[in-house]
Amino acid sequence: MKNTDTPERITDIPSQVKDPDLIGRRRRQIMDAAVRLFIEKGFHKTTTREIARESGISTGLLYEYVSSKEDVLYLVCDAIHAEVEATVAEAVQRVSEGSNVLAAMIREYFLVCDRMSDHILLVYQETKALPDQWRRRVLENEVKLTNIFVSTLEGLARSGDFPRLPRKSIELIAHNITVLGHMWTFRRWFLSRHYSIEDYIKRQTDFILGKSTKKETQ
Amino acid sequence: MKNTDTPERITDIPSQVKDPDLIGRRRRQIMDAAVRLFIEKGFHKTTTREIARESGISTGLLYEYVSSKEDVLYLVCDAIHAEVEATVAEAVQRVSEGSNVLAAMIREYFLVCDRMSDHILLVYQETKALPDQWRRRVLENEVKLTNIFVSTLEGLARSGDFPRLPRKSIELIAHNITVLGHMWTFRRWFLSRHYSIEDYIKRQTDFILGKSTKKETQ
DNA sequence: ATTATCTATAGATCTATAGATAATGC
DNA sequence: ATTATCTATAGATCTATAGATAATGC
User: Fold this and answer.
1) Given an 8 Å threshold on Cβ–Cβ distance, is A212 in contact with B163?
2) Nucleotide nearest to A60 (CA to C1')
3) Which nucleotides on chain C have any atom < 7 A from a protein Cβ?
4) Above pLDDT 70, what percent of chain B?
5) Residue B153 contacts residue B170 (beta carbons within 8 Å)
6) How many beta carbons lie within 10 A of that of residue A60, not counting itself?
């Protein structure tokens, strides 16, 4: 993950420690260590001892900042989502002036997926291990990301740069774009042998825009 | 899973027990129990004791038929794949005579995904827990399934029912079809609130065929 | 005699906490 | 005095196996 100095998000995870600034720094240490371990060995095979050691703190102290191992996973998933969403939101802004907005947006998003491949894959694989309430939040984050694409597509439809489809079709296409980005993360072991990320982006953009499959004269 | 009486596939998992028929029956018991538990609680939170108990055998006996808990997971993943692939292969045959072959094939495949939702999701979530060699096999199974779609698309391209695209684009579209089926399984919690499976199939078919996104007059 | 099965547990963890110690700020 | 930190471990598992028993087939 980028070492962004994002202001602390609200996480609802209580800490025994009072100093909010310290909480922020320690939790970042913990997340940085944990994300590495989780990617390498998976959540269940990573021990709390390892997380503490890799964070440079004692096991005891770890439990002053979180109340369970699942807390750590939630912190990690939430931070990953925040970074993806922030990057995409920024890219949507930046790109919304040019021509071919949709293609540009797809490109930016897919590049984020490429850069954060391991992290996105981690969320896919370990969300199930979260306690109910947090799993639901992580899943809702996926919807939030998708909704960014929904808005963009609707904007384009209004300005005539995208077909005026029923709301439900637009929504589904937004989901498709999201998931085709994720596909690069969970089929990467295969796809990257045959496609560069730029090649992937190009072909998928054609697919999404219907350029490849629609018969020439209907 | 369907209680198919498929002949025993070769699995390379050794057993202390000699009678091949008995191995087949016991392993089916084990897989049926394990798949339920894994879906409910996940692989890591399921204990070998529980698998044995649910299978109606003792913990000791379990280890006469597999040599580790991971073996059970592999058996399960392999059986799930076999069933999906068999169903799809059968459907491709059955459907290849009619008109609109591609749409029919997508429909059949998506219906399998709907029916085996939990199982397919399980494979997604737990593949990482497998020992290297077996994980690779499970991943290659995903490619095998995709290749069924590649063949179909190439057949259609030859007969003029599908655009003659470069091999690489065809391959990628096959991956897309596979993954958009899987998307129904891992976003089901959201999608099924808004789309029936038939509605999903219809809209996704239009999307894949480029009917929704391609501008009317290019 | 051989094969299949069960019972009981060794051995190896791992999470989370209690209680002791060090650092900080009034 | 209060807050942050560490050390050491209680308590609770869980996997895999050793050794005893039951069933089977010559």
Assistant:
1) yes
2) D6
3) 3-9, 13-19
4) 93
5) yes
6) 8
Task: Say if pTM beats, i.e. exceeds, 0.90.
Answer: yes
Q: Which of residues 47-66 of B touch strand D (CB under 7 A)?
A: 47-49, 59-60, 62-63
Q: How far is the CA of A27 from the C1' of C26 (A)?
A: 28
Distance A30 CA to D4 C1' (A): 16
pLDDT digits (tens, 9 = 90+) for A6-49: 445 557 888 888 888 888 899 999 999 999 999 999 999 999 99
Tell which of A40, A182, A201, A213 to mutate to test the B interface (max B CBs under 10 Å): A213
**Which residue carries 């939101």 as its tokens?**
A89
Distance A58 CA to C24 C1' (A): 20
Q: Are A38 and A126 in contact (CB under 8 A)?
A: yes
Stretch B68-80: mean pLDDT, rounded? 97
Query: Rounded to an integer, what distance in angstroms lies between the CA atom of residue B127 and that of residue A69?
Result: 22
Question: In Å, how far from its chain's centre is CA B86?
Answer: 10
Delineate the domains of chain B, giving CATH numbers in brackets: 7-212 (1.10.357.10)
Nearest-CA neighbor of B69 among B131, B6, B112? B131
The rounded distance, in Å, linking the Cα atoms of B185 and A80 is 22
Task: Output the CA–CA distances (angstroms, integers) from residue A99 to A94, A102, A104, A156, in the order listed.
Answer: 12, 9, 8, 11
